[in-house]
Amino acid sequence: MVNQSTLENGSIMNSGLMCALLFVVSAAVLAQPVAGRFPDQKPPDRYVLIHAGILLAVPGARPQTGMTVVVRNDRITAIESGYLTTVEGAAAGSVPLIVDLSDRFVLPGLMDAHVHLWHEPSFSRHRAERGDRHPPWPGVPGSGAEGAVNAMIFARRNLAAGFTTLRDLGADDEAVFAVRNAINAGRMIGPRILLAGSSIAVTGGHGDSTPMARTGDEIERLANGTCDGPMECRKAVRYQYKLGADVIKFTSTGGFGSNTGLDPQLFPDEIQAIISTAHLLGLKTAAHAYSPIAIKDAVRAGVDSIEHGFLLDDEGIAMMKKAGTFLVPTLSASYPPPIFRIPDPPSVKLRNEYRAFERAHAAGLNIAFGTDAGTFAHGDNAKEFELMVGFGMTPMDAIRSATVMTAELFGISAEAGTLEPGKLADLVAVKGNPLESVAVLGNIDFVMKSGRIAKQDGRMIEPFNYPAVVE
């Protein structure tokens, strides 16, 4: 005979056993992969076959005709003669996407070493009516949020122009970081962005955007990259590094945009502190510099690139060549400069008088393509090619400056700059032959960034990714 307590104990034991079994079964079910639910599931490989009528795989080398670029996911796996329709070694049933560019000229994605994505100039007299909240100077947003919206739009405009990699050399501590991170996370299709955050500048110098009322606020100064003396400058570099900067940009002279002149604004020990700290952290450095004195101070300290360099003298050219320092000429920002609405502006006079670009090119200096887009409308970057060729470069050398040389300056030659197996699939296509007329680069017809088509038949593709909601 079974008493009540035994029944109760048995029920309790059975209930406990049942709960344990349910837990094990539930855990086993949850451990099974569920299609579309878990982000760690590996998707099937994507294959794209690019049929290139003329292919300039390595700028500086001879173009090839009738070639296929084989792309798997984000990288090039092969470049074959003829027009392939299948991929050797692909999984059974895999159907590659074929992109017919057999009547196009295909080349690596272009790179611009000097842009400012959070703004571009505006001469409107009704800024307050547009809700721009009185930014400190025309074209500069009044907040990081506004700057981020600008940067999203301008990044896409640069991508549409064929620039798959950009180096942003001066914004704030928020805007372009947010856009770069969104692109890197795959939330939107945009150009690869290497950024400096805020430019390092001395109090009152070109690039100092700290409000007068906050000049003594240390955090405000760090966020804006403002520093005086070697110790402050080291700290300013480390602050940008902590934010996630990819490169450090500093303004060693005044500038046209801030009406601060062309003379040096940093002492040699401040320049040395900035560059040595950046290099210690594994970051390259870029110096906004006009004055020959400031250029030579930066080269002695080991700077990686001189931006603008309009007053570069022969001694400076010799020093840069010996050190392997790059020149980023930004001709587009000076000839003619859109930041002035006056006839025969001073930057044109300086450029034409000193002819630094022509002398640097003749001397064999490393020249990387850079435009200073943001001082003029984003997307017009290709006009730099026409200026470079007009001032003595061959079309091939101009293209090489925006691919091979920029990749070398950025330190990404193993990943980009040429179209070769193992490298990222960044490529563009145009109608016409840019080696015969470099002007055709102003009308990019097709853009692929990291294996994703961003522009086809002259039309941009939807930029954003809308993942399914996971409950």
| Structural domain tally | 2
Which oligomeric form is depicted? Answer: single chain
Please give the number of β-strands: 16
Structural class: alpha/beta
Nearest-integer average pLDDT: 86
The CATH topology name of the largest domain reads TIM Barrel
Topology:
Layout (H helix, E strand, L loop, with lengths): L3 H28 L15 E9 L8 E9 L2 E7 L15 E12 L1 E6 L28 H17 L2 E6 L6 H10 L7 E4 L22 H6 L6 H14 L3 E5 L16 H13 L3 E6 L2 H9 L4 E4 L5 H10 L2 E3 L17 H9 L1 H7 L3 E2 L15 H8 L4 H7 L2 H7 L16 E4 L15 E4 L2 E5 L2 E2 L11
Parallel strand pairs: 1-4, 5-6, 6-7, 8-9, 9-10, 10-11, 11-12
Antiparallel strand pairs: 1-2, 2-3, 4-13, 13-14, 14-15, 15-16
Helix pairs in contact: 2-3, 5-6, 7-8
Quick take:
By secondary structure, this protein is an alpha/beta fold.
Descriptive overview:
The protein is an alpha/beta fold and about 475 residues long. About 30% of the residues lie in helices and about 20% in strands. The protein contains 13 helices and 16 strands. The strands form 3 sheets. Strands 3-2-1-4-13-14-15-16 form an 8-stranded mixed sheet, with no helix packed on it. Helix 7 (about 290-300) packs parallel to helix 8 (about 315-325). The two termini are about 50 Å apart.
